[in-house]
Amino acid sequence: MATILIDGRACPARTDENLLQACLEAGADLPYFCWHPELGSVGACRQCAIKQFSGPDDKTGRIVMACMTQVTDGAILSIDDPQAREFRAGVVEWLMTNHPHDCPVCPEGGECHLQDMTVMTGHDSRRYRFAKRTHRNQDLGPFINHEMNRCIGCYRCVRFYRDYAGGEDLAAFAAHNDLYFGRHEDGALESAFSGNLVEICPTGVFTDKPFSAVYSRKWDMGGAPSVCAHCAVGCNTIVNARQGSVRRVINRYHEAVNRYFLCDRGRYGHGFTNAPTRPRAPILRQGGIPVPISMATALERFATMAKDGPIVGIGSTRASLESNFALRCLTGPDRFSTGLAQLEHDLTMQVPALLRATPARNPSLHDMESADAVLVLGEDVCVTAPRLSLALRQTLRRAAFPAADAAKVPHWMDAAVRMFGSDAPSPLMVLTPAATDLDPIAATAHRAAPDAIARLGFAVAHRLDGSAPDAPDLSETESRLADTIATALRTGRRPLIVAGLQYANAALIHAAANIATALHATGADAALSLVAPDCNSMGMALTGGIPLDAVRTMARTGHIGTLVVVENDLTRRLDTATLDELLAAVPHLVVIDHIATRLAERADLVLPAASFAESGGTLVSTEGRAQRFLPVITPTMPVQESWRWTQQFTRAATHADAPEWTNLDQIVATIAHDIPALSRIIDAAPDAGYRLDGRRLRSEPARISGRTAVRANISVHDRPLPQSPDTPLSPSMEGAYSPDTPGALVPFYHAPGWNSVQSLNRFQQEIGGPMRGGDAGARLLDDGIPAQAPEWHHDIPAPSTAAPDDLLLLPEPRLFGTEELSALSPPIAARVTPATLRLGTLPAGLQDGGMVSLTLAGERLTLPVRHDPALPPGIALCPPHLAARAFTAPVRVQLHRDDTP
Amino acid sequence: MFGILRTLWLTFLHMGHRRVTVGYPEHKPPLPPRYRGRIILSRDPDGMERCVACNLCAVACPVDCISLQKAEQDGRWYPDYFRINFSRCIFCGMCEEACPTYAIQLTPDFEMSEYLRPNLVYEKEDLLISGTGKYPDYSFFRVAGVKIPGKDKGEAEREAPPVDIHTLLP
Amino acid sequence: MTVPMPLIIGVTLAVLLGLATFLTWFERRLLGLWQDRYGPNRVGPGGILQAVADGVKILFKQDWIPPFADRGVFVLAPAIGMMTVLLSFGVVPVTAFWSIAGNLNVGLLFVLAMMGMGVYGVVLAGWASNSKYALLGGMRAAAQMISYEVFMGLSVLGVVMQAGSFSMRDIVLAQSGLWFIVPQVLGCMVFMLAGVAETHRLPFDLPEGENELGAGFHTEYSGMKFGMFFLAEYAGVVLISALLATLYLGGWQGPLLPPPLWFGLKTGALVCLFILLRAALPRPRYDQLMALGWKILLPLSLLNIAATGAILLLHAPG
User: Fold this and answer.
1) Any transmembrane segments, and where (chain C) (predicted)?
2) Where are the domains of chain A?
């Protein structure tokens, strides 16, 4: 630790950071624009000028850019120095010369970094009397609004979009005063991380388009900490709501997980909570006619149904632990299903055990960023776990750091460090059936069928550790590739293997485990990450249950009286014939869900559940981190949490041991007690009894407006806002707020003088470090790393011997459209493209774009064909759920020769 | 002692003074144009709503009696609903002071008593007048650099025509 | 010439209560006049029916007794306040032959006794209300009224010594030559100040002290019970004015006009003086009030007694 003097005040600082970071960490108000904690410094905006003195006798000093100057012990600085102040005021005035005087109609207003910095420097009136430069805007798609006139030319957008996230279609155009950031032509931004431009841009050039349609100022929205439900990574988010509707989702910093960025699916996927089709009242279907009924009647009906035989429950990997557990309490563990078909069920169940048994680390996202050799084994992480792919992208820079260290260039010196790394990036190897977005930066990108990839994986493991089983009959190319990969992995001190369940291939994850085990045995600090498909797949794996196929067997033998399905659309899991057979054998079907599903259309009783925005719950991410989400809206009865419905069912069905949970914490405690693997979920977040300075945390900013008018059209009488028993957050602006709030409870970011998301700096122990109040979540899989000799997996697939006509049809999940919940969000739906069948070699006589038909999951489909020469032979790709609803796992298909149906 | 007697005497003499009370309903006092009475929403010189739904009046309001929702058409922001709960309003004029477009203005009308409180909740239809109010010439969109129908980029006050980004010439 | 007793009682009561009601309006009009405003001028000609409107309102208000109050005492207190004032009027001679109690030979003592009783009305009201402001008001009233009763009693001793009688009629008759205000100017001043304090009228209305005590001893009172305090206060004003007129201004005596009119004129003028005090003077601090009493009025009244005694002794025959 070094000590620096800021305006005579001694402050601790680290020598590996720059003066700007040190000043901000010391709590000083120093304006800046182009520096970003994750992007480093480029010294473009000249805004963070401060005075540095060479010693106690130096009274003159010199102006330096704080972001470009390294901390030295005993450095003497002045932020308040008149010359430095004048310099900064000049910079802002100059940046503002072209600013278009449109703050009132700018969605950034009120949370604008430029506004904050302008106020901070004291610039208040315009002296520039000449014409302002103007720009035309572009249509950047359904996510982002473009208003170039507001630009101050800090380059943050392209530095994030191109340098950090690897996007190609956003660039700087023109020069000097005419500088322009945009695409070469109108069109949706292609990167999966374009939404972060909203938070990256210090002013209102890039703003949130869906949010703008339901706009509310930052000070007018309540917030609650939440966890993204659109993939298994478990990014932390803040959900903003006003007047009972979700307005937007923004990033919530978690040091080890998503840090500063979200993917577009997570940011824009919340639209399903406001869908007009959402069930809002219990629906009883009598003779095919849906009738809305009261809660009491619904429970009575359920009690009647329960008399007709055993209750079987089907949980869901997109429902919270609590919802699944409450259902399990209703039915008993033997009649609780994971809601997954056999293959997926078996795979999901073995992931936690695999991660525990493998001696390699199970890394967090931030941990992955420090890997220096990465192998992606048969998983297109760019679509199944987009934020994870962004982390993998950062691993390429690892190779630059030793070189930079040798040249004494600090790591935050972004442009210089990138220069060092551009020649020899760290190796990233991608083995997938189809091309991924990581391919352009991968050292090795190999296309093969999942089985072949698994074989390669086993071969690599054998080359790393001779005791590992080798894959027999490898072709020469494959053998050479295995050598290359093994060599590359061996160079890394922190190698990382990523695999997943995308292709529902057990051999793939076993091969990945073998490689990780082998690497660990070589002494490297190896890591293994397995990507689960859904936001709570891992939680379901730890809860346990029976597969859907077992439920079908029970139904066939007449062992089901009532089937209760919680937040699971079985039409996406079972093909039509199988589902028909199951439902025909079940006397009563009860569906509890917060979206309108096709299954609900067939249910005898549909109950409206609360979505993630209206309920609290726990999700277990793919790294085994249990994280709590809290309600931002109080649901209006009869909409309530799934676990409350099932709890009431248990009472209605007059079970002797009906659980008596009155709030979330009690059910969490019961889960922790009943399921040892989940015992640590209590630590995921402080409970509802948490108080800061003796008070609840406020969920709304202190300056929220319109409290006496917002409901005045309904009633002029004030009413106390209902307090949810599940959250320590108060429902209003009354309560405590502090930068020391635990990371799991932060409802919004604000600090005096810092209204934008940049106020986050005040909430961190050090810039880019853990939250001052502690980071969110509790990791569940860190126990039980075995010390004994490695156990090798031996299920090496045989080489493919498929007939030339036989196609292996693989599910090709998409960033937008194949994930159930986000696909219901209007902006995401606008980005969904129709399903196609991707083929490596087109059948004779078929053109690219021509129609082909096949029978899939019991349905005869006709799909347009897309030619993808990179695909290995015998492989076809089709997005799951889009063409055939129940298509999820690889299947062998044959194309119909004739196109006549 | 003398002071007390003098006070009594002076007060007694006030018997002959003119009364300052204005007998209100019979005699209406002249109110200055900047009197802070009933709030209205004005229109710009082109007859369009001046309010751009920026929410600054709502946040400035010390009793939180203003609520609105932004909507947008062709780049113009306007309030989808605009509600003032006059049963809470204290006529402090902070909203008018905060308004960047001169849309919200307080008028010299204060005769707005009602027997029912809900009748004091004014919606946009009740607030919006057809004139410009106290500021006849100001139009926000003539100054702001956003594009609206009839005013392209670069056509606001003190704006240069849009840049051709395909040239590198200075 | 005797007037039938029931008539006297009836007329006195009617006039008194009517006067008190009238005063509620009259005071506000007069205050308005002196403070350059109107006062109540809407109801009836010149607003005169305001008093009726107020009366109707106050009669029809809910007769509310707070659940925490001592019910019995709470109801009794305003009655005591009203009764003592009304009883005092029994000995006030409107003319030589118009007095309810006739020529009671201890008339003045009776008045003082009733004033002493009046303290109970206020103190009990403050006590029975069982609320902090009312209690504070009651406490202040107790201290203030008991203190000023001393000076009041002492101040009239001069008059008694000069008249040689406690009978009000004798006192008036004793002033047929010179009104006692001339020889007893000190006593008159002390009596008047003490009278203001006894009726806890402004500026000595500390028991009510709106700005610090809500409404003081009657904070919890509403409806006609409050109305009784209110009327008692105005009746008290009339009483003190009538006593002043009787003791120091020659009572009904005067040239030309008939005696009752003289009595009425003198009383009315004094009532106006009371209202002028209210219009002009700010309320003192409580300690100032007590200091005025004990440090100035007490010595003054003692001095008055001594001086009167000495002069009487000097002029005494033999």
Assistant:
1) 6-26, 73-100, 106-127, 148-166, 178-197, 226-249, 261-281, 293-316
2) 2-80, 361-525, 807-893
